[in-house]
Every structure is written in C-alpha cells, then in structure tokens.
Amino acid sequence: MKNPYMPYPVRIDDIQIATEDRSLKTFKFVFLNKEDEEKFSYHAGQFAELSIPGKGEIPIGIASSPTEKGFVKFTVFKTGVVTSYLHDMKAGDIMGIRGPLGNWYPWEMLEKGKNIVIIGGGFAFTTLRSSIIYMLDPANRSKFGNIDVIYGSRSPGMLLYQNELFEWEKRDDINMNITVDGTDDPDWKYNVGFVPTIVEEKAPKADPDTYAIICGPPIMIKFTQPVLEKLGYRDDQIIMSLENRMKCGIGMCGRCNIGKELVCRDGPVFTLEQLNMTPKEY
Amino acid sequence: MKVIKIDKQNWTGGIDKSRENYQIFGPVKDKEHFVFKKLNLKEYPDMENALSVLSPKSILFPQSEKILAASLDESQDDHHIMKRVATDYSPRAVIGIMPCDAKAVQLVKLNFDTDDYRDPYWCDAYEATTFVGLAVNKPSIYDFTLSMGSGPFAEEGLDVLLVDCKDHFLAKVLSEKGDAFLKASGFTSEADADKSAKLINEIKNQAEKAIDAEKVKTEKLKEKSLLELHGASFWEDLSFSCINCGTCTFVCPTCWCFDIQDETKGKKAVRFRNWDSCMSPLFTLHASSHNPRAEKVQRVRQRFMHKLKYFVDKYDQGTMCVGCGRCVVHCPVNIDIREICNTMNSYEAEQA
C-alpha cells in the first residue's frame, strides 16, 4: 500500500482570478508524472490536499470534473498561511497534490435517472461545478432526469465560473437560476434575491426521484433547509458537503470528527438524514 | 504454552546479549519520575512496575516525527518534490511495558492500520517492535485495567509476558517474535509448564484481587444513545474545573491525534507529524475563524465521548481507555475518567 502522506508532484499550469475582489483564484495543475493522473482517479464531490513543501497542506474540493482529462482544477479562497502563499505562486511552479480524498456525491444511485437540484452559494460552488460538468458530459447526460441549478453570490462579480454559468443558461438540458443578493447593474438579467428565496420560487417540488445537493455558507444552509422541507424533500433527499479543519485527510489525525464520523473519510458528503444522527460539531 | 525461566542474576547479561540484534527500550528513573526511552549500553530497564509519566506510545509514535522532506533549491532536479525521510526501523524490543500499555498499542493500531489507508511510519515501527511485558504484581490504587478489558496480567498485544517471581522471572512466550527475542537474549531454559502456570496463576489472582473491578462500569455505554449522551447536562459540571492543559491527552497511551506542520531551514523543507490535543481550541479552528469546538465544555466532552462512546460504537472493541490511571494521577484539577465513565454508563436522558 502506498504512503498516504506522499503528494503527487504537480506543476501549476495556469492561474485565473475567479472573482472581482481577487480573493479567489482557480489553479490548473498538471501532474509531473503522467501515471499519477491515472492514480488520481476521482469522482465529483471529492477533495484533495494541496501540498506546498515548507508551507503546509490545505484540503480543497476538486473543481474539475472526472470527464476533463489532462489536468485538475481547484478554486481557492485566500484566507490562511498556505492559501495566501499559493495565491502568490506563479504558473510553472512545482508543488504537490495528495488525494483524491473523502467520499463523493452518490452518483451510483443518482445515475439511475434521478432529477438533480444543485443549490450553491458563494464560493462553495467548486465540487458543484465538477458535478455539473460531469452530468452534462454527452456520455452521462442521459443517465439523469431534469437538472436544476440555483446558484447565488453577493454580487455578479463574485459568481464563480461566470463564462460557464452564462453558457449553461443558454442550454435546454439544464435549468439555470443564477441570483445575486443585490446589484446596481441595470443590465443584470438574472435573479436578485437570497438563495433560499429563489429556491422557494424556482426549485422543483419534491418527488421520490428528485435529490437536492447543497453547498454553501452555514447561513445559506440554515435558511434553505426549511424551504426544502416545505417543498416536501425528505432528509435523505437532501445531500450536503461539509467542511471541518483537517490535516491528514485519511481519517487518522482525529480533528474533523462529528461524533463518530470523520468528515475527511466518512464524508465530506452526508445526507441530512445522516447529519441528524450526529452532533452538530461543524 | 512455553514458559522460560530467567534467573535474575542472568538478566542484565541477557539484555546485553539482545542488544546485538535489538534496540532496547524500557522504563528508567529520570530524577523522580519514570520515563520510557531508548536505553544506552549499560542502561537496563527498571523492573519495578512503576507507572511511567508518559506511556510508551512514543516508541511507535514519536512526539515529533519527520515524515517527508524536499529541497527548495531550484537548481536541483527534484526541487519541491517531497520524499519520505529515512528512519531506523531495525528490530527493537520494549522491555517492561505494562500489559495495559500493550493493549493500548492494539487500540491505536485500529487507527493507523486500516483497510483503506496504512500509516507507514507507525506500522513500520510496530512491525519492528517486540513487546516484552512485565505483569503487574502489585497494582496501584489508580489501576482500573480490569474494568477496561485489560488487567495486570493481560496478554493482548504482548510477545512475551514476564512474571516477577522474586529471584527469577517466568517468561510466557506469546508469539514467534517473543520466542526470537528470548533466544537472542540467551534465555532458553524452559520451566515446567504445569508448575509455572500454577505459580503464575497464584500471583495473578493475588494481583487482580487488589483491583476493584466493580468500581468502574462500562457495560451500558454501547446501548446509550450517542446524541443523548452528547446532549447531557452533566458536561457543564464535569468540565467546569478543566484548564484545557492537555496533560491527559499527552500521558494517555491511546490518544493518537496528531498535527502536521511544515518547517524550512535554508533550502530544505521538512514536514513533521506532532502529537496534538483535542483540549486545544486550535485543534478544530477553521481558517475562517469559525470553530466547531470553541468552548471548553465541547472539548472536554469530545475527549470523553471519543474514548467512551464514539470509539465503542465505531469499532465494537470496548473503550478507548485501558485503565492505566495516568490521566487520573496527573490531572492538575483532579478530573477523574473513572467517575466520568460511571456517569456516562448510568446516564438516563432527562425527561423533556
């Protein structure tokens, strides 16, 4: 068995500023050894440790989709020691990636023709982007029913992956509901309003074959949950991805637990039904 | 069961002989306290059954351990590519480990050696180690090993169990590793199996009588509701005096939590794994400043729930406590895991 602490060496291939306040950047990595890309075979919803020798590691959701080959992408918010250092790195720099880690959205079940409602807020849209790209892939689209997306941010310039969002708007095999908390842009042609409000107005009503995947700040989740309940969603139809402080990412270092579950290894993806059985230590 | 008789006059000679093939670790007196350490030539394990301040867990899980390193010198071909740090995993023997500390190693193994992932540092050290236990003839008043699935003569996790019989040791050979160690030490004189079993049993019964196994109860922990125990009001009282010093976690033989930190010196980067403690607010502090266990009561509850409920539910192998009593001895504010265990075990949810 391989050393689970050993990162795969990667080169930064490209860095894109992701939001107007420059607090988020999207990093595209290429594996130095081609065979490592095979070993890093992942599912939408998993995360990895970005590993900078001498600085440390950070657990970040994988923003690229398994259907995108030749690279992996991560969108990173500048907030601590490692993320700040990473934001100052340049294309061509060498670092490491350790993973893929954790579980993933329950694709095996969802791919049996389920309708999917993606609900995202702020910069918690990374593994949701991965999921959308994955589902829209021509090889996969027929495995799903309707796909609805409700994604919001503070302002238009804070939306992640804007070009892709507007491209998806034009398609008829995905129903996009982009929203912002507020904007003074007179040409803004999408929704204005908080995510829970737009969910109440636009999300499909519950159905035995419809599942909601939610990622966002705690405040968004707190107010979206009752709305979904009102729409009739059962707790096992509400799928969420958690974050906690992590170090090892492999269930050994002990800090990310919620009760007996470890967010890094038993999660990060849990249904609300599962979370109801654990202490709220996240 | 093979039993070897070791005359005490041959003891140090045998230890010296074993050094040709083994690094020797054992308890020695350091000022007024006992510590487990790697023994130099002419140093011998103290076979007095004294409770070391720290458990021997550091022999497999050092308090600070280099795990990876990389060069940051861009003129090197492999700059910024991390590699495993070379560590000496030649055979080692831990002599004089208490039976409960050996059981603790087996519990820690559940964390570091799993079907999905194997921690190579801990596992390589474990495989290199022979555990030569010393039965506890006179348990201390803090010993509650019998309540925690161990005991003064328990054999789980040991390769050899030594029993002190005044002028000699009887060595029960419990594994091939143990047999190899005894041979390498020149201890080969087999004792009469029946007679020695009888003698060991007598001493064992005497030792076990000194522990009140009924004092600490665990049998109902499994059936309790995890959420009800977590929500119990007694945590406020139990955690009130805690100063979050972390002593309990450092002295504990089963506390395995760790931190990973990087350091650089010149053009060299090293990644370390260090002991960590759930008593520290930093343990769970998010970069966003959100902290799911920001309050002391949450952290104290975490430690005891982990040992006495989460672990029990997750592995179905008893508690993550072996009853060594170190945290009871060393807690500066006299928090007593025995009382907390009984409180949890007898808890009935408050009526709504």
Please summarize the sheet with the most strands of chain A.
7 strands, mixed
- The helix count of chain A comes to 8
* Count of distinct strands of chain B: 11
How far from one another are the termini of chain B? 56 Å
Overall domain count of chain A: 2
Q: Would you mind describing this structure in some detail?
A:
The complex is a heterodimer of chains A (282) and B (352). With 282 residues, chain A is of the alpha/beta class. Chain A has two domains: 8-100, Translation factors (Elongation Factor Tu (Ef-tu), domain 3); 107-241, Nucleotide-binding domain of ferredoxin-NADP reductase (FNR) module (Rossmann fold), CATH 3.40.50. Chain A has helices at residues 34-39, 81-87, 107-110, 126-136, 162-170, 195-202, 218-230, 272-275; strands at 8-17, 24-31, 47-52, 56-61, 72-77, 94-101, 115-121, 147-153, 175-180, 191-192, 210-215, 238-241, 257-258, 261-262, 269-271. A seven-stranded mixed beta sheet of chain A has the order 10-9-8-7-11-12-15, sandwiched between helices. Chain A is globular. The two termini of chain A are 31 Å apart. Chain B is an alpha/beta fold and 352 residues long. Chain B has two domains: 3-63 and 84-209, no CATH class; 226-263 and 275-345, no CATH class. In chain B, 30% of the residues lie in helices and 20% in strands. Chain B contains eleven helices and eleven strands. Chain B has helices at 11-18, 99-112, 120-128, 176-184, 193-209, 226-230, 234-239, 247-251, 296-315, 326-330, 337-345, and strands at 3-7, 23-30, 33-38, 64-71, 83-84, 92-97, 129-134, 160-165, 168-173, 258-265, 268-275. A seven-stranded mixed beta sheet of chain B has the order 1-9-8-7-6-2-3, sandwiched between helices. In chain B, strands 5-4-11-10 form a four-stranded antiparallel beta sheet, with no helix packed on it. In chain B, strand 2 (23-30) and strand 3 form a beta hairpin. The longest helix of chain B is centred in the last third of the chain and has 20 residues, at 296-315. Chain B starts with a strand and ends in a 7-residue tail after the last helix. The model of chain B has no long low-confidence stretch (mean pLDDT 95). Chains A and B meet through strand 6 and strand 13 of A and strand 4, helix 6, strand 10 and helix 9 of B.
